[in-house]
Amino acid sequence: MAEITWEEPFCGEGNNCFRIGTDLEGNAYIALAGQEDHYLTDTREALRTLIRDIKAGRADHLL
Q: For 55, which of 12, 36, 45, 47 is 20 to 30 Å away at the CA?
């Protein structure tokens, strides 16, 4: 299992908290805070794209 470095939890108002993590091999991880054993993983670039799209409102239909 990869050694994941988790950032502090991000909590939206009235929403679950989530955490973003990275490893030394260039992978990015996202998980609900407290459930870091159950994460989604992809490349760091894919995570950057996801975050940019969310900020731009292109993922609002998923929320």
A: 36
